[in-house]
Design a protein that fits this description.
This protein has 22 helices and 18 strands. By secondary structure, it is α/β, with parallel strands linked by helices. The protein has three domains: 160 residues, Thiamin diphosphate (ThDP)-binding fold, Pyr/PP domains (Rossmann fold), CATH 3.40.50; 173 residues, Rossmann fold; 181 residues, Thiamin diphosphate (ThDP)-binding fold, Pyr/PP domains (Rossmann fold), CATH 3.40.50.970. The termini are far apart.
Length: 574
């Protein structure tokens, strides 16, 4: 057995089903070892696209997605997708090749120090220096990638080490995932004291709350005690937006209506809150308030985020403990599905809470969302088109957002009804992720309704992966919001300087571009036409590339409306 063959056997033992990447000379031995394995190697059109597919594959499954690149430019092309996975807390293992050890002490062809280049953007990485370390390194890479908080790891395998013979005694290690510790009882007790004293508590659900059990127990906790929930962009769906306790999303670069809830709250309970996606000074600028931090890791040190108590450990276990101990639940009880209409407030835990204090704010948020409904003859806007997309999708459908102006509107105006019902890159916030992400989603859940939403700028960053998507027979709607602009940058420039520079771009004929790949390509002509295209796509489980020409006037109109509201509120307060 060669090192490459042992490496592949270790990957099989870890449950790897797909590897996404680009072949090269120096990873030849690994590719031939994969040929006779249970693992499918998927040739992609760019290593960044491969890393994004692995990234979203890991995020949806909880098992590390795997991407592969050769040495030099193959490895450096993986970097953006790997860094995105690490900051978005998506489990991913990157494998790169390297030249032979006999030339690494020289300045030689395509040689760069990949291990040190990847070190700042991964949880752990290393180079295989000997056949005897292969099994340990592969096992460690997957354990580190998948355990909380998840992230990216990286292994380098040089071409000569890959061909070395290895004794059969060095077989794959059995994957064993340690159970996460429960929270300290004193932290739970302190949390209860803060909760009992709170008059206006508010839950902030972050990326960590999306985990299946965390979402379940968060929902039970919120609905049992009637506590409102706001989410970060990556926490969307932790509590269904159908719940009357949902206040939507915090995270825009300006003060939206939801900021009023944070101003008025006297206790913030953060659940899986990820500072990498939204800094605390953006929301913690109101009246002095207490903070309970519930997360897998201790809180980051921030002047504006200094929790009164940190409940560190498994998130679902912490919420379950609060429910069990102070919600009159029995250890053996199988929790029923709860709804806010038929659950009584537990008077013991939230004894001082002002019932319904958040409802005027929620009403204001809901009324604003209704303003963007399109009539049949209206020109498209992003929020208007999103209403049509949401209505066309079932509650379990998946929206994958690229980065741009549309991301802000998706976070704000696209209701999400289940965990992982809306994926947004917001740690690294990488343009170009949604199209590759849709490939991963379709491979994992081929029957699911999937929309990859992107701007014209983000689409062309990884448009080459349309060929990969077609070859794999995946099915999804690739929706392109076209304003011939790097719209988010243009919007922000207008806000700061009243005009934009260096953002205008030209585009190809997007429907014709899609058809050149043998795919359905369309330009939406009206709201009803868009709805029809989506229904045809979903029922046919095929790939539709749908261009939506948009007008952007609603961007600044929203800002003006919010500015007017906050000024009026300030005048009333003074």
């Amino acid at each position: 057995m060669t090192v490459a063959e042992l490496f592949v056997a270790c990957l099989e033992k870890e449950g790897v089903t797909h590897i996404f990447g680009v072949p090269g000379e120096e990873n030849e031995s690994l590719l031939f070892a994969l040929e006779h394995s249970k693992i499918t190697f998927v040739p992609c059109r760019h290593e960044q696209g491969a890393a994004f597919i692995a990234n979203v594959f890991g995020r949806l499954t909880g098992k590390a997605g795997v991407c592969l690149g050769t040495l030099g430019p193959g490895a450096t092309n993986l970097i953006t997708g790997v860094a995105d996975a690490n900051l978005d807390k998506a489990p991913l293992v990157a494998i790169t090749a390297q030249g032979g050890l006999d030339r690494l002490h020289h300045e030689s062809h395509q040689k760069v120090d990949i291990v040190n280049m990847f070190r700042p953007i991964t949880k752990w990485n290393g180079s295989v220096s000997s056949p005897v370390v292969v099994t340990e390194m592969v096992c460690k890479a997957f354990r580190e990638a998948e355990q909380e908080k998840p992230g990216a790891t990286h292994i380098e395998l040089s071409e000569d080490v890959a061909d070395l013979e290895v004794d059969d005694v060095f077989g794959p290690m059995e994957p064993r995932r340690p159970r996460r510790p429960a929270s300290d009882y004193k932290a739970i007790r302190k949390s209860v004291e803060l909760i009992r004293a709170a008059r206006r508590p508010l839950i902030l659900a972050g990326n960590g709350a999306i985990r299946k059990l965390a979402s379940k127990h968060l929902t039970e906790f919120a609905e049992r005690h009637q506590v409102p929930v706001a989410s970060t962009f990556m926490g969307k769906g932790a509590l269904t937006d159908r719940s009357r306790l949902s206040l939507g999303t915090i995270g825009l670069g300006f003060r939206d209506y939801i900021a009023e809830a944070f101003d008025e709250a006297d206790l913030i309970i953060t659940v899986g809150y990820d500072i990498a996606e939204y800094p605390p000074q953006k929301w913690n600028n109101g009246k002095p308030k207490r903070i309970i931090h519930i997360d897998f890791d201790p809180a980051e040190v921030y002047t504006e985020y200094d929790p009164d108590v940190e409940v560190v450990g498994d998130i679902s276990a912490a919420l379950w403990e609060l429910n069990r101990t102070h919600g009159n639940l029995d250890d053996r009880e199988v929790y029923p599905e709860l709804s806010s209409e038929n659950v009584k407030v537990n008077s013991d835990l939230f004894r001082n809470m002002e019932k319904g204090w958040f409802e005027p704010i929620r009403k204001r948020i809901g009324e604003d969302l209704e303003l963007f409904e399109l009539q049949e003859n209206d020109e498209f806007t992003v929020p208007g088109a999103l209403r049509i997309i949401r209505e066309a999708m079932d509650d379990g459908g998946l929206m994958i957002s690229d980065v741009g102006t549309h991301k802000m509107w998706i976070a704000r105006n696209f209701p999400t009804y289940c965990p992982n019902g809306c994926l947004i890159s917001n740690g690294l916030a990488s343009m170009g992720i949604s199209l590759p992400g849709a490939i991963a989603a379709s491979l994992h859940q081929p029957e699911r309704q999937i929309v990859a939403a992107m701007g014209d700028g983000g689409f062309l960053m990884n448009a080459q992966e349309l060929e990969t998507a077609r070859r794999l027979k995946t099915g999804f709607a690739a929706v392109i919001f076209n304003d011939n602009d790097y719209g988010l940058i243009s919007w922000k420039q207008h806000l700061s300087r009243d005009h934009s520079v260096s953002t205008r771009i030209d585009n190809p004929d997007f429907p014709a571009f899609a058809k050149s790949f043998g795919l359905e390509g369309h330009r939406a002509e009206s709201p009803s036409h868009l709805a029809d295209l989506l229904q045809t796509c979903f029922h046919g489980n095929s790939i539709y590339v749908i261009e939506i020409p948009i007008r952007t006037h609603v961007n600044n109109e929203l800002i003006k409306r919010l500015d007017s509201y906050w000024k009026e509120k300030q005048q009333i307060g003074s």
